[in-house]
Design a protein that fits this description.
single chain, alpha/beta, Aspartate Aminotransferase, domain 1, Aspartate Aminotransferase, domain 2, 2 domains, 7-stranded mixed beta sheet, 4-stranded mixed beta sheet, 14 helices, 15 strands, 16% strand, binds ligand PLZ
């Protein structure tokens, strides 16, 4: 073990400050980066190579003693904050009691408790059931298995700019070639892609964009062959694309009329992130199946498929599972995370953060014409960077702005098919002052790179 195995105390009581005591990355991180190069496969990239020692509230503290403002939440995972009190408490208690039995062998309460909570929290008041897994990609794969078993049909429709994971089926469902798919084929069959509603780029209303997508589905796939439509209600990796109002309800209505299972992939947008418990709630869309992961368990690996009881039960006994799916420690973390969200009214907090971020980003957009659009909902906000006066993507400027933020102690993420979207996913445990300071740095970054 290295000295990094010495436990540093993170969590909500960690000093909430941006503090730079070395360059980013500092000398200790650089040493560790050498070890990473020696021992970790190059295919596992690292965007900001500061090795973390503690984290909580709205900061990450590295091995050099730098404290960075976190505007990424480990890609929308630490929604309740790192080492959140109820998560840490539940995990400690569960680790002391038992760490694994395999739910398929001998069950335990935590798994059932999480499924009961999911039935309550996900959109719709119909009878629901869930199955638990380890990763988002695994949840998406299982949603497709369930939809196929329930409908007896094969085809799956996904959208332009979609991201659903890195396993074989989910690579087929993900749109972007580099870095996700390149050289990894052949991909799973019977996956078809429809045009997404992308207001900045297509100028269509939600109804028009839905009609365009439905026409493609109808002509190129045929409803009678279609098991499910899988869609991120707000796209994540693909660029925080918010479909025009009316797009999701129209697609859901068409799916219902045609016996097609409507699957909302809420892995990135779910669990209070957008200011509602789920992004579908915003338009009152009730999906047949919902996939969740990331924010569900405060950083522990857990994922779920939740949906109409009759669809979930269409699969034969033994047809769904996995050694670790719904691991008791991950379930304990999820119950802690849900407790934090409920007690802290984190859906409302996400709306407040969204209002604050939008104001900052709109002010920035008024100053810098490289910002073509401010979009997002709640604590899932983004700006898309294009060459002024056009919608030609500007990934170079995007990377420069992000690099400046990193060097100045703010963890920021980019995304988008063209790498030209700057996205903001702060933990909902971040304070207003720290958030404002983070956005001061973002503003400086635009000024410094113009
Ligand atoms: N569906 C909507 O956002 C994961 C991936 C980062 P896993 N997004 C971050 C990367 O480069 O690997 C994601 C998502 C949506 C599915 C997934 C997949 O979730 O837990 O990463 O498998």
């Amino acid at each position: 073990m290295t000295e990094s195995a010495v436990a540093a105390v993170g969590g909500p009581t960690l000093p909430q400050e941006r503090r730079l005591v070395t360059d980013i990355p500092g000398p200790r991180s650089l040493e560790r980066l050498e070890r990473k190069r020696a021992h970790v496969a190059d295919g596992v990239g690292t965007m900001l190579p500061v090795f973390v020692e503690a984290a909580g509230g709205g900061v990450l503290v590295d091995v050099d003693g730098n404290s960075l403002i976190d505007l990424g939440s480990g890609i929308a995972v630490t929604t309740v904050g790192n080492a959140a009190a109820a998560v840490a408490r539940n995990v400690h208690a569960q680790v002391d009691a038992f760490t694994h039995t395999c739910f398929m062998i001998t069950p335990y309460d935590g798994y059932v408790d999480v499924c009961a909570a999911l039935a309550e929290l996900t959109p719709g008041t119909h009878a629901k059931k869930s199955a638990l897994f380890n990763s988002g990609a695994e949840a998406v794969e299982n949603a497709v298995k369930i939809a196929r078993a329930a409908t007896g049909r094969d085809a799956v429709v996904v959208f332009d700019h979609a991201y659903h994971g890195r396993t074989n089926l989910t690579m087929a469902m993900t749109a972007k070639n580099m870095p996700y798919k390149n050289g990894f084929g052949p991909f799973a069959g019977e996956v078809y892609r429809a045009p997404m509603s992308y207001p900045l780029r297509d100028g269509l209303s939600g109804e028009q964009a839905a009609a365009r997508a439905i026409d493609v589905i109808d002509k190129q796939v045929g409803a009678a062959n279609l098991a499910c439509i899988v869609i991120e209600p707000i796209q994540g990796e693909g660029g925080f694309v918010v479909p025009a109002p009316g797009f999701l309800p129209a697609l859901a209505a068409w799916a219902q009329a045609n016996g097609v299972v409507f699957v909302a992939d809420e892995i990135q947008s779910g669990f209070c992130r957008t200011g509602d418990w789920f992004a579908c709630d915003h338009e009152g869309v009730v999906p047949d199946l919902v996939t969740t992961a990331k924010g569900i368990a405060g950083g522990l690996p857990l994922a779920a498929v939740t949906g109409r009881a009759e669809l979930m039960d269409a699969v034969h006994v033994g047809g769904l599972g996995g050694t670790y799916g719904g691991n008791p420690v991950a379930c304990a973390a999820a119950l802690g995370s849900i407790e934090e969200m409920r007690a802290g009214r984190l859906d409302a907090r996400a709306r407040e953060l969204g209002t604050r971020m939008r104001a900052r980003l709109e002010a920035l957009a008024a100053e810098h014409d490289v910002i073509a659009e401010v979009r997002g909902r709640g604590a899932m906000m983004a700006i898309e960077l294009c060459h002024p006066g056009s919608t030609d993507p500007d990934p170079v400027r995007t990377a420069a702005v992000s690099a400046y933020c990193h060097q100045h102690g703010v963890v920021t993420l980019t995304c988008g098919t063209w790498g030209n979207v700057f996205r903001f996913l702060p933990p909902l445990s971040i304070g207003d002052e720290l958030l404002d300071e983070g956005f001061d740095v973002v503003a400086e970054a635009f000024a410094a790179t113009s």
